[in-house]
Each structure stands twice: as C-alpha cells, then as structure tokens.
Write the structure tokens for this entry.
Amino acid sequence: MAAMFIGITVICYAVAILLWLRFRSYRYLLVVIAGHCTIIAEPILQRLYSLTYPDNVAAITMFGNAVPIYALLAASWIGSLPVLLMYFGQQQHWWTRHYLTGVIAYVALVLYHIIIQGLAARTGLWRYSQSVGAWGINFYLLMAVFAGLSSLLLFYAMVASRYYAAEIAVPTLVAASIGSPLICFGLLGAPFWLPRLIGSSGNFTKPALLVIAGLVLWVVHLASAGIHASRQQHVIER
C-alpha cells in the first residue's frame, strides 16, 4: 500500500507538469508541491488525535515525532488530488460556479476521504487510538469530515484566485494548502480534542459532536457562498 501511495505521488507530479506545459498553468504543480508542506500538521494530529504509524517503516523526525517517508510523499496529493480534478473541470467548463457546486463538492470530497481513511485502516498505514465515539460514529468518519472540509477550502482558494496575478495567487494557494488542515483539524476540531487534552474525557461526546457539526456546516456554507460569489469577481488577469 505504501508503494502505491508513492506511485500515485510520481503520477501526480508527471500530470501536473504536463498540464503546466499544455495549458501554461502553474497552479497544479504549485498545489502538489505545497501539499508536502501540510506534513507540518502531522505532529498536531499525533498529539491531539492520537494518530500513530507502524514502527517498522522508514521515517523522519519532525518536532520530536516520527513521520513515515510515504506519509511525507503522499501529503502532496491526499488532500489535493480531487481538488485538482474539480478545478480542471471548472477550467474546461464542465460545471458552473454555484452555491450548490460547493455543497456537492464537499460531499464528494468527504466520500473520497472516507475511502482513503478506510484503506489506511485496513492496511495499517495509520491508526487512531479510538475507533468509535458518540452515537456510535466511526472515528475515521470524523477524520474524513475534517479532511473533506480542508480540501473544500483549498478548492475555494483555487477557484477564487483563478485570475489573480502570480504575485498574489502563489502565496494565496500556498497559504491555503498549509493553513486549511491546521484550521480544520486544529481549530474546528477543538470541541473534540480540547476536553481530551485537559484530561476530562477520553471520547468525543455528543455535545462536542453537535458543536463540530455546526462549525463544519457553517464553513461549508461560507465556502459555497464564496464559490457562488466568485462569478461576479473582478480580479487581476494573470
């Protein structure tokens, strides 16, 4: 499974370079490269969500935490691959920028991350200390909800900045790639990990789950409204 992740990384780079040469768009390659930087969120996930990796794999040490090489490589596409496909579809006019587009995109992104989380759980690529929480909801599903939201924010950043000059678009996309998982897993996930951090609970409770659901729906609404509003944007031509 780790070898497959590495192979997908190589394919993503090859396709991103081809799209750069074909359409003169650096965005695909930029997002793939910036994806590696999302690995800085790994120590946070390990600390706040008790994320663990197998012991017998090649790894690097980051902030005192072991991060497998395959996780570092796969970080380039795990969150961004469906986003790049959706953005390519928008560029080819396969869909219109509409509020419903953002909602449908989020549902599709969550389903994609459920598959990724399921494969990881079955093959042991990574695990969490708990598997079931409030109302019997699978913990991997909660992670897929956060990961899907992180991808949606990156998708919104790509759509909203599609005509920006490189001087504005490059830092915007890099910031979105790095910041979106920190916001989703760190800030929006606080109702779950904060009680655990102070030792008051070992599980995510029903009140925490309701707060998280409200925060996620609010961010999905904002991102979808932003995608809809981008149709009227007047921005700098690249």
Residues 150 and 180 are 5 Å apart (CA to CA).
